[in-house]
Amino acid sequence: MRVAHIEDELENHDRGLDHDLPRLLQRRGLLQLVAGASLVTLAGCASAEVSSGGSSSTGSPPAGSASTSAPSPSAGSTAATTASQVPDGNIPEETAGPFPGDGSNGVNILTESGIIRSDITSSFGSSTTKAEGVPLSITMTLLDFENGSVPLDGAAVYLWHCNRDGEYSLYSRNATNENYLRGVQETDASGKVTFTSIFPAAYSGRWPHIHFEVYPSLAKATNSQNKIATSQMALPENTSAEVYATAGYEQSVQNLAQTSLDTDNVFSDGYDLQIPTVTGSATKGLSLNFTCAV
Questions:
Q1: What are 83-126's pLDDT values in tens digits?
Q2: What's the CATH code of the domain at 212?
Q3: Which of 284, 250, 266 is nearest to 93 (CA)?
Q4: Residue 181 · residue 112 · CB < 8 Å
Q5: I want to staple 238 with a disulfide (CB 3.0 to 4.6 A). Which of 55, 110, 196, 280 is the partner?
Q6: Is the pTM of this model over 0.85?
C-alpha cells in the first residue's frame, strides 16, 4: 500500500447516524416526488481531458486572502452527459492514506450525526471551527460502470482532504479535535453530489489531491468495509499554482515545485481518469467538476 507522508456540526449531534437517516430518506422521497416527473436529461459534468500540466482555471493570482463564500457550481455541471464525456474505464483504486476517518485507521467519523452534509468547511459537534482557504465547490457525478455507465443513483460519497496548512482533521497535531473538510452526500438521480469546501494545500511528498470513497447507500456508509471504491482526484497544476500564490498557502508553493504527477506515489502509475475540470478564479472562488465510473 502506498502511504502519504505529513507532519505530526449542532444540535442532536450525539444521536448518531440512526437519528439522521430516517429524516434524510424522508426528505429524499419528497424531493423525488416533486422533481421526478420533470427529470428528462441526465445531469453531469465530466472531467475535460487534461495533460499533466493542464488546467482550465482562469484569473490572475491575487495579492491577498480570497473570498470566504463558496461559488455555485459552474454552468457546465448541469449539462447532459454525452457519450464523449463518459470515462473509458472505471476509476483507479487508490489508497485511502493514513488519515481516512472511516474506522480503518483509528477514529470512525462516519458513525457521527452531522457527517451527512454538503458544506464541509466547518467542524460539527463540540467544535465549530471553520477551515479557511480559497472557496471550492466540488461537484462529482458517479456512473455505474458495469451497467453501461448509467448514473449511479442512491450511492453515498465520503469525501475528505487536508486544510490550507496541509493538515488533516482528526489526525494532525493542530487539528486532532476538528472534523472539518470531511462529509458524506447521497447521489441524486443523475448520480451527482456537491460539496462546499476550500482548496487543499500541497504538503511535502504529495501532489495536491482530494480523497473519496463510494458506498452502495447511506445506510452502508458507516464502515470502510462496506465501500465499493476508494480513489483520489489529482488537482490541476495551473489552478494549484494560482491558489498557492494567495495568502495562507505559502508553504504549498515549495511543496508543489518539489513533486509532479509523474513522480507522485499515488498518481505516477497513471492519472488520466483522475484529473477534474476546475473553473473560476482564486479571488472569486473555484468550481470543480469530476465524473467517474465505479
A1: 446 787 899 999 999 999 999 999 999 999 999 999 999 999 99
A2: 2.60.130.10
A3: 266
A4: no
A5: 55
A6: no
